[in-house]
């Protein structure tokens, strides 16, 4: 899981639902995602939560500087 915190500027985000949950894999292929379930622009001070295994695409805006922080949240798994 990750928490995205927009610090400066703006970015456009799309969040895509997983076709199949794979809780033990660190990374999923781009074809493992289905429909876009949310899209929008993050402005400074806003945050976005993305569960593990959900796809995302992010784009900045031409001519603008933008920074965000990514905070990883580790969930315990069955292996733990």
Write the layout of secondary structure elements.
Layout: E1 2-8, E2 11-18, E3 33-42, E4 47-50, E5 55-60, E6 67-72
Antiparallel strand pairs: 1-4, 1-6, 2-3, 2-5
Name a few traits of the molecule:
single chain; 80 residues; mainly beta; three-stranded antiparallel β-sheet; 6 strands; 51% strand
How would you characterize the overall build of this protein?
A three-stranded antiparallel beta sheet has the order 4-1-6, with no helix packed on it. It contains no helices and six strands. With about 80 residues, the protein is an all-beta fold. The mean pLDDT is about 85. About 5% of the residues are buried.
Outline:
Helix content is 0%, strand content 51%.
Stretches where pLDDT is under 50 for at least 5 consecutive residues are none
N→C terminal distance? 16 Å
SS element count, helices: 0
Order of strands, main sheet, comes to 4-1-6
Structural class: mainly beta
Number of E-state strands? 6
Largest sheet: 3 strands, antiparallel
* Mean of pLDDT: 87
Q: Give the helix proportion (percent range).
A: under 10%
- The 3D shape can be described as flat
H and E order: EEEEEE
Beta-strand level of the residues, as a percent range? over 45%
Cα-atom radius of gyration: 14 Å
């Amino acid at each position: 899981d990750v928490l995205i915190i927009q610090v400066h500027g703006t970015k456009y985000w799309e969040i895509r639902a997983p076709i199949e949950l794979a809780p033990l894999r660190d990374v999923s292929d781009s074809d493992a995602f289905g429909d876009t379930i949310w899209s929008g622009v993050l402005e400074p001070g806003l945050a976005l939560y993305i569960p593990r295994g959900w796809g995302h695409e992010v784009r900045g805006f031409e001519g603008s500087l933008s920074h965000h922080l990514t905070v990883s949240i580790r969930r315990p798994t069955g292996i733990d």
